[in-house]
Amino acid sequence: MLRSIALLAFLCHVVACSSSAAQAPFVNALVPQPRELQVSADPGLSFSQTTSVFLQAAASGPLSAATSRFIVRLQSTTGIELTTPLVPNHDAASIVIHVADASASQPTLGMDESYSLNVDSHRATIEANTIFGAYHGMETLLQLLQSNGSGWFLPPVHIVDTPRFPWRGLLLDPSRHFLPVPVLLRTLDAMAAVKMNVLHLHLTDFQGFRIESRVFPRLTADGSDGEFYTQDQMRAVVAYAAARGIRIVPEFDMPGHSMSWMAGYPQLASAPGPFHAEHSYHIFAAAMDPTRESTYEFLDRFFEEMTHIFPDQYVHIGGDETNGVAWKSNPRIAAYMKAHGYAKPSELQAEFSRRVQRILNRHGRKMIGWDEALSPDLLSGFVVQNRRGATSFAAAATQNRQTIYSQPYYLDHHSSSAEIYAAKLPTGQGMLGGEACMWGEEVNAQTIDSRVWPRTIAFAERMWSPPQVSDVEDMYRRLRIESLRLDAMGLEHLSNPQRLLRHISRSLSSPELETLAATLQPEDFIVRLQRQKPTRDTPLVGLVDAVVFDPPFEHEFDRTVDAFLHSTDDAAINQAASTLRRDFQSWVNTGPALDQLTESNPELKKVTERRHELIALGHLGLEELEARQHHEHLSAPDVAMAEQLLQRAATPDEGYVDFIVLQPLEQLLRAVR
Amino acid sequence: MLRSIALLAFLCHVVACSSSAAQAPFVNALVPQPRELQVSADPGLSFSQTTSVFLQAAASGPLSAATSRFIVRLQSTTGIELTTPLVPNHDAASIVIHVADASASQPTLGMDESYSLNVDSHRATIEANTIFGAYHGMETLLQLLQSNGSGWFLPPVHIVDTPRFPWRGLLLDPSRHFLPVPVLLRTLDAMAAVKMNVLHLHLTDFQGFRIESRVFPRLTADGSDGEFYTQDQMRAVVAYAAARGIRIVPEFDMPGHSMSWMAGYPQLASAPGPFHAEHSYHIFAAAMDPTRESTYEFLDRFFEEMTHIFPDQYVHIGGDETNGVAWKSNPRIAAYMKAHGYAKPSELQAEFSRRVQRILNRHGRKMIGWDEALSPDLLSGFVVQNRRGATSFAAAATQNRQTIYSQPYYLDHHSSSAEIYAAKLPTGQGMLGGEACMWGEEVNAQTIDSRVWPRTIAFAERMWSPPQVSDVEDMYRRLRIESLRLDAMGLEHLSNPQRLLRHISRSLSSPELETLAATLQPEDFIVRLQRQKPTRDTPLVGLVDAVVFDPPFEHEFDRTVDAFLHSTDDAAINQAASTLRRDFQSWVNTGPALDQLTESNPELKKVTERRHELIALGHLGLEELEARQHHEHLSAPDVAMAEQLLQRAATPDEGYVDFIVLQPLEQLLRAVR
């Protein structure tokens, strides 16, 4: 008798029975968590083809457009095409959006971003004072959508929400590697999804000047290698951002980090030049000349032009890492310093900053600068972007300056989402919020998403949600869900690493290479910078570019080892042991396939050490496991050997990749030594 | 004794020994295959950091830009950063590009696309008469790059190459689903990689008017739902294409398929309206009024404007599917037809086409139309695009018309790469080449790449290579390699299906869902259209949108079953049996995981039948396998049951997906019945 017969018989009885089971329990996937959330006993709102979406009064162009996009996303999430989405149907399920005053469409610092969201079995209602609050409400509603055996529904929640901080930003650096417009747009989509509201663009640096100036066309003609945003493009980006409640804050780094300006306009410089946009990543001495009136006249005209592209009230002037060498070695500037009694370059920089601030203020803009630009001589309204931590914050507070906090949020470093989430924030009046900073030396348009996301989700929650929301496990649970949502929205953070692994393995899939990659992360920014000495032209197509900081396996493995060693529940211990055994065995098993793959593969040759170490670590893990389960201890020579292996696996390799599994393996070793 | 000790000892002896082994044998991954290819005994050219690339004389702006892009791609492919790439270094390995006459930069029909490529141990030399030939030579060189234990090298080849047909096109249809500029750009990159040279854009149809007209701004204002290419954008696309040797041929479909024109300009129509861009996909009767002078005056001004955007000599006016209903039901037009002795609407259409052709000719353009536009009354220079096959071709040949052949190349149908490759081409003077056509009803910007690629690679080879190049197995081998190269270049044909599977499974990976997806393809265009009745707003996020036509598993499974049944080599039979057993078992094993995944997943519920059938098919396969290996036969009732299963699995399902494994299973069944 064929086994398939039974199955076929079964098939003949498959009935399209849409069970009308009770709603599944509410799964909280919201990130950031709202300020207040209550769940009622109501069955919630079934979402179906006939659900209608409508704006109650106070509609505006931007709000209507946002509602149309919202409808498309409701459809993409659920796969359900709404029949007549915008026709209010009071008999059917409805999503109602009510905005008290929809007149403001340009986001500003301190705008009212609050909203409430109520769901019962008839309707879901988003209420907000501004369209910005309504945008957030729509994002929350999309995160609420869930499905059970009967279909899609919105759980019966009552949410009242407002952000903890008004400045929740992300810095991108198109100067080092240009980021074409589509990268900015998809980043804005992702930021909006987690309620961030500032995209800070580091538009100029040694390596390139990335925004078109029509007043000074040689800025891009000579300083951009042809890669820059036209004014039309940037206006479109600003509009796209505003339509999602996000401000674009431009940064024009000065007086240092400004060599790309001098390529076309050497008269700005403190030294004769010639200059060009640099492809290497040194910190060059070249700095603007703060002693010439012509410098300020130039900047005055330049900033005037930029105000027509960037409507935001804030302009960032950088101000970091000006070492003063160019000033001291120019006799005219040295004489100026002496004449003004400036003992240190920082005093000359303070004069420069003060004058630039006056120019900006005259154009209706407030000035932001990094820590180094802070000076008591600046006028009020100056905002400090903090990259040096608590001491700098205190110094700013002494001067009554507001601060954007960035020190723990440098995404080119290998901080995990947990570390970003748990970073201690200074308290005080001046705290505006923070920015996650993605410097561009080691990322390009292809790899940047996988460096920024999903870690920035943890940052976004820290900036929005009350400080009491701090459960790391729950954050990771929700971050994983949101990461998949961003993927579906078109972010490349999951796709591109896989694409690179296909490129490296030259095959549709290589499970063994994926196993290796899952245990690795890139070297920390600064270590790679010093060892590899990459330039703007270094291809970013190696395993180091495919692996990510804080890969999913890191937290998972930590937890499993923790459960194995510390759980008091035998079942949990056995479960953990079985997971670990499977993992360790998969490391050991990578050998033959990766040996073969590496044979004619120069890229994989670079990680030969890591490959071999992974196999050895797998054996070590299996032995640690066995010893622990049999309540045995490793011999002293074996322990020494294991320690040597762990030490070796922690040293830098030719592929610029680090293991993320060493600490748990050390914990295991301590338990059986 | 720790097993890891041995490994650790081994690690300590890992030496970075760059073996100087002889070059690996040449692996021919070229697609399309060149006209002539010889491989010499020379060791070939080692590619390293010091390899230089330079243009020999006759440099031009476009050629220099192309060379710079070529260098970036050499670096991305190999991961090697060239130190001073553009400085000729006669001591080191060099890639030399020589173009006899680099003055022409705008591609035209019949341009000289030939090139030669010679590699010895000192240099690789590309020689071409035009920059278009040089572009092809660079693509060939990139496909030649390969690596062995010592690093990257170019094998010692002598290639002389020229295309079989001068028209090697792809039709995209941004009217049904708008395709933003980045989609066009990445498509052009892929086309250039396989030496295609025409991108045909179907810019207007019932569902939308997609190119900005400043003369008639209401065309997009009222007929595009806000989705269209600005003139600046389209000029950039045309320039991007030209820089890759690709012509952009615009299509403005008329007199039918033109409702989006009438939304803003109802005076063009044969009926009073009102009209709007349609969201459904019916073929509407609305057609332009060919009896009014004002229609031709409008078209005259419109085409005049378009010549400033589209430099190509050819303009496509569609001309398909005008059913004449709108004409016959308008008394004025009916009277006109009677007065002119037109018995059938096609006669009126012929007059219309003739007049439009005169307008186009006056603007220096030649006219293309689909089969239905063919008429003996047209002037010479008219080109037919064939969508009806050999009979239509013969009709055109009778009128001495040139033909672009498309009938076998409709990518919305489920033709496999093998079928596309093997399609019989008509012979005759008028054969210009062909176009693969990707109609837009059921694809959007996210899914389109996976419908177009990799199948279009097979088409590209058919259009370029000599007809003797026809080995299907070898085509598939090279197509798989090229598919990965296109993936690395940024095409989404591999990424997006995986992204959709993550969206559907809501997890980073679901091996069981991947197993199911590997056995499925979308329903053929027309079947899905009639059953699902999708509109422009139907979300394309289901399993039907994640699976692809001619998935890799299809050909692989066919071959394995074939080897199992027909090989004369016992080892090959056993190998095939073991592969099949693993495959069938993997189908059976999908049960529990997919049951669980489906529980609260409305999208997966749609493929419940296919899921259950796959399990039954797996059981059937295992039994067929067992019977065959034991030289047994299935009982009559078992055969009947199996046939019933295969039949059932071949009927349309709720998810709009078809199995691609049924034919081989039937073959197996025939062998054991």
Question: Would you give an account of this structure?
Answer:
The structure is a homodimer. With about 675 residues, chain A is an alpha/beta fold. Among the domains of chain A are: about 10-160, Chitobiase, domain 2; about 495-670, Methane Monooxygenase Hydroxylase, Chain G, domain 1 (Up-down Bundle), CATH 1.20.58. Helix content of chain A is about 45%, strand content about 15%. Chain A has 27 helices and 20 strands. In chain A, strands 10, 11, 12, 13, 14, 15, 16, 17 and 18 form a 9-stranded mixed β-sheet that branches. Chain A is globular, with a radius of gyration of 28 Å. Residues about 5-20 of chain A have low confidence and may be disordered. At the A-B interface, helix 1, helix 2, strand 7, helix 16 and helix 17 of A face helix 1, helix 2, strand 7, helix 16 and helix 17 of B.
